[in-house]
Amino acid sequence: MSSPQVIIIGGGVSGLSCAKHLESAGVSSLVLEAADSVGGRIRTDYVDGFSLDRGFQILLSAYPEARKLLDFQALRLKAYEPGALVRYQGKFHPFVDPLRRPAKMFSTLRSPIATFGDKLRLARLKIRSCRGEIQDIYSRPETSTLERLKSEGFSDGFIHRFFRPFLGGVFLETDLVTSTRKFDLVFRMFSSGEAVVPAGGMEAIPRQIAAGLPSEAIRVNAQVKSVDPATNTVELASGEKFTASRLVLACTEQVASKLLNVELEESDAHGVTCFYFASNTAPVDQPMLILNGEGSGPINNMSVPSLVDPNCAPVGKSLISISCLGATEDKCEEDLRQKVLSQATTWFGESVEQWTHLRTYSIPYALPQKNPAFFNRREFGNTQCDGVFVCGDYLETASLEGAMVSGRITAERLVHSLAPI
User: Fold this and answer.
1) What mean pLDDT comes out for the span 49-64?
2) Which of 242, 278, 292, 377 is most buried, most CB within 10 Å of its CB?
3) Cβ proximity of 307 and 354 under 8 Å
């Protein structure tokens, strides 16, 4: 390709989204990705016939940006049941959305996970969350999710048994200090859509976006060594150099700060450790999220992805995914795995002894942290870097949707900056 107008450093969802919107606006770009494939934090590995996402991830089908950018039909989305199996008092209790599964209304009403008042408050919150425009969320007063739940009147027991493990799997923290703006968005998306995964794994999402770009617009195995903001020149570790009118840093804040040798307002990140096991039989028979409502032990949430998408496991096999909050050092991985298996044995019995460990993913930077008062849409305003833009989900709601939104907004700013005055 001829010299691109824009160079995008980072082939994650935000960088690919930016490139896609630039392509639609007639602006050429080149995506430089250090890894061997695009996707960033959304990658899928294929091990012994199993499809393993690098950390348990889902797509919320109601995400408005995703609905515009992605071809849902081509992704062949598979849906989880709208609810969860909650481990509490030594048993698993189904807690299903009765508004979507009316046949299970009475079992949900009898569930000990929540008081009758909690169930009424939850139904009321679901209905209210879908009113108004999504943009209204970003102008509401901001506090922590925990304070919001308490202000809604939810009991401490329900918060502990349901919201902490459920939102812990979404926010990757159970103190529930995450901004209410992210909570309001996520809760609205769960209330108005489905939790889904593409057939074959989550990496199908970035692959689909990348497939909409010219083949020469993406370079993988392209490790960026340095950036010269004065000339908008990028040098790779190989010594190859590229120059463009504009640069986009679609990477983490830490990497962007290092490349530009400037200080960016950094947010902390939440980590997660995800274990995958193979089994001849599934420990449960429903395609639902499994939550640890007891609050003890290392497991926060788990699922059986092969019940959702049978193609992610060989015929006659089940794939089991277990998530523990926080990243784990290699030397501690075996110890944590044994504790996970011990807790799983308490839950499911001796059949756990037949599970085969497939792979462990310990991910320190799994999700940018979003505390109250941190949420804003920051712009990179260094006067010495007028041609440099940044994008990423840390600039929006830290999520797949946020990555796509940030990519689009950055592309729009780029197009505006390139327009003749």
Assistant:
1) 97
2) 292
3) no
Structural tokens at position 387: 């041609």
Task: Write down the pLDDT at residue 379.
Answer: 44
Ordered DSSP codes for 90-147: TEEEEEE-TTT-GGGHHHHHH-TTS-HHHHHHHHHHHHHHTSS-GGGGGGS---BHHH
Query: For position 376, what pLDDT does the model report?
Result: 45
- Higher per-residue confidence, 252 vs 274: 274
Q: What is the arithmetic mean of pLDDT over 59-74? A: 97
What's the CATH fold of domain 6-42+203-267+373-418? FAD/NAD(P)-binding domain (3.50.50)
- Separation CA 313–CA 318 (nearest Å): 6
**What does the pLDDT average to over 31-57?**
97
